[in-house]
Design brief:
The protein is an alpha/beta fold and 385 residues long. The chain contains eleven helices and ten strands.
């Protein structure tokens, strides 16, 4: 049975600042570990180290270099100036691309430590060669920033639009050589100023340890713990599906936890492995379907319709998001199928001091957990046929 009071108790327990790589994140790790052990289960720990370069420095450096590129094209002072600057820019971009291909291996700057925690509940068949695997994920850490996710996404959009317009205008100007067009020059300066302003604001959007992270992601942790509590009972064990309950560290630092966890499952059959990611749920539920749902799951679809005032199914699959990233998106880009859970209405609060318990409707989280008890049973029965 899904217990609303237990969900509320867990959210309260995890609603404290817990920046990745700090003792506060370690505290959340220990709380989850104790709760798993109280269910007479043995969790597996995975320690890893990481650098904050990829998550906090690299995006800002990349945007700055590209803004510099547009400025050089606009100024177009002379051949020597252009060749020298464009050569430096090309070398820097090449270095950034090569250096960030495996972010989990970057060791630039201070070294931080984090950990994943996961536990596996075997199916009743206990035949790992034939069984399916379903991974339920949430992340242990939180972070605060000067600006909320909504503002940060808007800044990225401004930067992308102004960069694209700046590139288009300078290309047209260079191709047609209309250097004396005053209106075009003024418009170009206007665009470049907005691009510069967006870059500067993104630079000053510093990371801090102020946000309590109730929405992001104490809500997700509580849902995964509640489902673990439910499926830890032998009578609820699935027939054909192994369930993995995963709590990742350093998600807010470039998804470092799931990148390290991926080493455990990188060779899994993508047709028999599915992910369900719980991230930032408050008063509404957006379900992003990435190939888990199908028209055979009548009870699951009926449940969504019965709760349409809080639940909506998003059928479009995006593999690239501007300004945000998650464990689920990382695994999606590794060709895993699954289902994502979130709440778009939280973007005003996440990563800010306003990410607090009063923004969450516990009844919504209970209904989400109930939905997954229905869906997972349907999935399990479908795979048995």
């Amino acid at each position: 049975m899904i217990d609303e009071e237990r969900i509320l108790t867990n959210i309260k327990e995890f609603s404290f600042p817990r920046l990745s790589g700090t003792a506060f994140e370690k505290k959340s790790f220990n709380i989850v570990k104790n709760k798993i052990e109280e269910l007479n289960l043995v969790p597996i720990e995975q320690d890893f180290s990481f650098s904050i370069f990829y998550s906090r420095i690299y995006p800002k450096v990349a945007l700055t270099v590209l803004s510099w590129f547009i400025l050089v094209l606009f100024l177009n002072l002379n051949l020597v100036f252009n060749i020298a600057n464009l050569s430096i820019i090309f070398i820097l971009i090449l270095i950034l691309i090569l250096y960030t291909r495996s972010p989990e291996n970057i060791k630039l700057g201070q070294e931080y430590h984090s950990q994943n925690l996961f536990v596996k509940i075997l199916s009743q068949a206990k035949n790992e060669g034939l069984d399916y695997n379903i991974f339920l994920l949430s992340h242990l850490d939180s972070k605060g920033q000067a600006f909320s996710i909504k503002i940060r996404i808007q800044l990225y959009y401004v930067w992308i639009i102004t960069f694209s317009l700046g590139l288009l205008i300078t290309t047209i100007n260079s191709f047609f050589l209309i250097e004396d067009c005053v209106v075009l020059i003024i418009f170009s300066i206007f665009i470049l100023c907005f691009n510069f302003l967006a870059t500067v604001i993104l630079w000053i959007n510093k990371t801090n340890n102020i946000s309590k992270g109730a929405i992001d992601d104490a809500s997700g942790i509580s849902c995964v713990l509640e489902l673990l509590n439910y499926y830890s009972k032998p009578k609820n064990t699935l027939k054909n599906c192994n369930l993995w309950f995963i709590f990742t560290g350093a998600e807010e630092s470039g998804t470092m936890g799931v990148r390290n966890f991926y080493e455990n499952i990188k060779d899994f059959d993508r047709d028999k492995s599915f992910i369900i990611n719980f991230d930032s749920i408050a008063k509404n539920i957006n379900l992003w379907d990435h190939g888990l749902l199908n028209n055979k799951y009548f009870k699951s679809f009926n449940y969504i319709l019965e709760n349409k005032e809080i639940m909506s199914l998003e059928k479009k699959t995006y593999r690239f998001y501007i300004g945000t990233y998650s464990d689920g998106l990382f695994l999606l880009n590794k060709r895993f199928k699954g289902l994502g859970n979130g709440d778009r209405s939280t973007y005003n609060y996440v990563h800010s001091k306003n990410d607090d318990l009063d923004k969450i409707d516990i009844t919504v989280l209970k209904k989400l957990c109930q939905f997954y008890t229905i869906l997972l049973n349907e999935v399990d029965n479908n795979w048995n046929n």
